[in-house]
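Two folds, back to back.
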Amino acid sequence: MQDNRSSHENSHGGLGCFILVVIILLLLAGAAGLFYGSLTQEKPKDLADTTVESFDLNEESKTAHRTVDDVLLLKRENWQLRDTERRTHKDMLEVSSADIVWTDREVAVGVPVTTELEGAALWVKEHLQGTDIKVIKEEMSTWHDMDAWRLDLGIAVKSGKDSERTFITDTVFFFHHGNLTNRDRDIPKVVSSRASKDFP
């Protein structure tokens, strides 16, 4: 009788150990899956990867919008900001025929008439240093028939071993707003060449 009870207890003990081992293995597998998933999400995009059918750059675009906003809002006491238009773009890579999706927008920035338009753009560029935002192009332009300085900003995505491709996410137009009276005291003076400037 005692032997039967001992055998019964041993079988229960063995089953408990087996269940415990299974639970531990499941937890380890789940942790490994989460770790692998995080590595996959953090893996940088490479547009030269021909195994990818579609590149979604929407999150990178949103991050760029927020970064530009953070800099422009430093001037909320002096400038007037208007997010005027936001669009989704879709393009196709020639080599792999993969789709690329990203967003861009236009931002109109009214500055006091005493502020140089190109100087305002230079101030923004200086404050974007150290971020992932790229200055792609800038030039004299117009906004609603007013003289303006256009600043094209964007993101760079790896495209092969030693190259990258840029995408414009934010087109900022600086123009003079006659109702703004707070003078900018930290905008650099610029001797403008009034020429278009493209950046690599």
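---
second:
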Amino acid sequence: MLQGAQKSVTIQSPYLVMTKDALALFRDMVRRGIEVRICTNSLASTDNLQAFSGYQKQRQTLLKSGIKIYEFKPDPAHKRDLIERYKKLEKGAPIFAIHAKTMVVDSKTLFVGTFNFDPRSMNLNTEVGVLIDDPLLARQVEKSIERDMEPGNSWNAATDKPDRFAPAAKRRKVKLWKALPMTAIL
């Protein structure tokens, strides 16, 4: 599906750790003029520091390849809208994070599943997903991802230096995880 993309690929995944093959595929797409946008968790919002450490090691490489990355804020601007839909959250709003695993290709084909964009999902876990060829539904999901990418809801990984917004303790912990030889199991 990705190799057949003509204009755009929009992805939302809580974890973003690319294999060499995936990075090569995305670099090729960008070289062919395909816009690739990914919304993932920031260090401030992630619940998985090990996976984030793998992403952090790759972030500059991904950005230099032309991929546009947006890191979700733990206190997004559209938090009020989300809380209004789930009244229980008013009493103690949690840190907001992304857990969706969706991809839209050319605003017409949609993937929804359990597949995280990381080697664990590719090599270790049993994952499922569905491809849906429905331009209306695909565009609705893409608009939802785009909303999460807006400046009030996400930081631009290329310009905002999002790690600085995470608590110091979280920054120290991810630095430790980054130092460990875990790439193969992320």
